[in-house]
């Protein structure tokens, strides 16, 4: 299949005709500048249309400059919201000077994590601050405007906080444990998120499987069940190091670097790279 090529000047003049040609021929067109390929205009296939699993899996990828506020949330408790928030914040702090975890949980687990570290004389590579009860959407936006990457840790069973966090987040991560029961119970959280999705212009959420153990058949089944949902490809394994991280600087970061790459789309899909 030979790709049609054209220069940037021709593109400016003839864009609408070219788009029509791409649509009708189903063939990509490569745009060149000084003879070198720059970008490709690729026809949309069934694969890319909304409701296909592939497109659902890609939705959470927004580009690093667009990921300023991330929320970990679920109506269910104990699924790993705080663990993920703190590990992800550590990874983000490898590249960004200003990273803040906004603790919106009255149990203040993230704040207590920081306090325990400080008591041992250890400063986390980011700050954890309590969310203002009545104005935390503004608080998160103000931090983002001041250049912070904000990770919001939320409480379980709190629809109001969940909705507020999801409304302002560029990306929402919904951890789920790898059992049939847990995947089934995702429904209520996802219903709330879909409701918000209907009301907001831009909304990105992805389910992330946590405490995955490939030796367990049930975990594999749960992993497959998530393929029907917007999800991260990365699964977070069940590791003692994650359990022991409370009160310390998280050190086992490989999977969370993968998650950050996935969220920021640093692996550009091959078909749009000329
Ligand atoms: N991938 C993992 N491997 C091993 N242990 C994990 C993993 N993720 C979370 N845990 C452990 O599971 C427990 C619950 O995790 P965490 O506190 O992060 O969940 P949570 O969703 O924030 O809970 P809550 O709803 O109470 O705020 C903690 O003891 C944590 O160390
Ligand atoms: Mg928590």
UniProtKB/TrEMBL annotation:
Listed InterPro entries: CobQ/CobB/MinD/ParA_Nub-bd_dom, DNA_Partitioning_ATPase, P-loop_NTPase, YefM-like_sf
Pfam families named among the record's database cross-references: CbiA
Domain CobQ/CobB/MinD/ParA nucleotide binding: 70-240
PANTHER family in the record: COBQ_COBB_MIND_PARA NUCLEOTIDE BINDING DOMAIN-CONTAINING PROTEIN, P-LOOP CONTAINING NUCLEOSIDE TRIPHOSPHATE HYDROLASE
Entry similarity comment: Belongs to the phD/YefM antitoxin family.
The protein's name in its UniProt record: CobQ/CobB/MinD/ParA nucleotide binding domain-containing protein
Species per Swiss-Prot/TrEMBL record: Deinococcus ruber
């Amino acid at each position: 299949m030979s790709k049609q090529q054209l220069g940037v000047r021709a593109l400016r003049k003839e864009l609408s005709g070219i788009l029509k040609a791409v649509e009708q021929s189903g063939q990509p067109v490569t745009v060149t500048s000084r003879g070198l390929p720059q970008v490709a205009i690729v026809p949309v296939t069934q694969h890319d249309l909304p409701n296909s699993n592939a497109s659902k899996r890609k939705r959470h990828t927004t580009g690093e400059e667009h990921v300023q506020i991330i929320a970990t949330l679920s109506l269910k408790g104990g699924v790993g919201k705080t663990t993920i928030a703190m590990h992800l914040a550590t990874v983000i702090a490898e590249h960004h000077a200003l990273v803040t975890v906004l603790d919106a949980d009255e149990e203040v687990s993230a704040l207590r994590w920081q306090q325990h570290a400080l008591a041992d004389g250890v400063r986390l590579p980011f700050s954890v601050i309590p969310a203002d009860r009545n104005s935390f959407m503004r608080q998160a936006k103000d931090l983002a405007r001041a250049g912070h990457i904000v990770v919001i840790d939320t409480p379980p069973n709190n629809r109001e906080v969940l909705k507020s966090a999801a409304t302002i987040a560029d990306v929402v991560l919904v951890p789920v444990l790898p059992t049939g029961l847990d995947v089934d119970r995702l429904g209520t959280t996802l219903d709330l998120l879909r409701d918000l999705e209907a009301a907001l212009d831009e909304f990105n959420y992805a389910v992330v499987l946590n405490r995955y153990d490939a030796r367990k058949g049930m975990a594999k089944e749960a992993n497959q069940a998530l393929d029907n949902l917007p999800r991260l490809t990365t699964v977070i394994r069940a590791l003692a190091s994650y359990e022991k991280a409370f009160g310390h600087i998280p050190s086992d970061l490989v999977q969370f670097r993968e998650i950050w790459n996935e969220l920021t789309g640093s692996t550009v899909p091959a078909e749009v790279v000329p």
